[in-house]
Amino acid sequence: MWQSELYPTTGSSMYDLDLTIDQQDIMHILAKGYYRPINATTTRTASISQQVFIPLDMAAPTLAFMAKRPGDVPGDNSGLVLLVNDGASETAVPLANGRAEWNHYWVDMSPWAGLTVQVKFQLTQTVGDPHVQAIIDDVSLGSAYPDIWVHGNGPAGGLPGQTVVFEIAYGNRGKVPAEGTILELDWPESLLLASANITPTVGVGSLTWSLGDLAAEAAPGALVVTATIGADTPFWETISLPISLSSATTELEQQNNEAILSMSIAHRTFFPALLRP
Fold this sequence. Notes:
Elements: E1 6-8, E2 14-16, E3 18-21, E4 27-31, E5 34-37, E6 44-53, E7 61-68, E8 79-85, E9 90-93, E10 103-108, E11 116-125, E12 135-143, E13 148-153, E14 157-158, E15 163-172, E16 178-186, E17 191-196, E18 201-203, E19 206-214, E20 221-229, E21 238-246, E22 258-265
Parallel strand pairs: 14-22
Antiparallel strand pairs: 1-2, 3-4, 4-5, 6-11, 7-10, 7-12, 8-9, 8-11, 13-15, 15-20, 16-19, 16-21, 17-20, 18-19, 21-22
């Protein structure tokens, strides 16, 4: 807790000191335009630890926790580290940068599958660095899963004989790879396939792409499909192209695995407005 105090100047007057926190969660003393960080005067270390068994058959074992880490910023020697000791060696596991508000952190524990390890949260305060804190909650061990997604973009309408282009983006937002991913696009007879930047397998009423493994948090992939609208396609017909993305890896969140492209066989025209005096 910070309490503003009065400090004498070189004369008989007094002035107030105020405490402020900057955007990097570092505390500073502010007094009549004078601005300096509050740095630690001693070096200290605090830690908590727990023995944890990592099941050998657990899919993508992951240690997850919530933490507040005010003052824990990159560039100095103070902060929170996670140490895993398997009895033979101790490994420091990198953590994302600290934040003053609650944030979710996770660590891949697969290197220690089948072992009982000591998991230690260690907070180090180094003299001369800004003061750091760590509040840790909701520590758990469980499986991580991929989170594959797909969405599409295309024209709202077109006319018979016209060339149209569809763009499909896909990816994996999860923290583990998605293996054996397959993208399928329903393909009506009224569309004639002209080209695709990745060659699909053409089936009856569908186009299929075997995309292989999608790495964890990989950059989005893109498919570009060019087609011609059949000359005998009736006007006012609506063409729907459902898209689905699947993986051989178990996934919990699947609502974003499907999307749909839709277009009308029509052409929008704007007529000028006629105003009578």
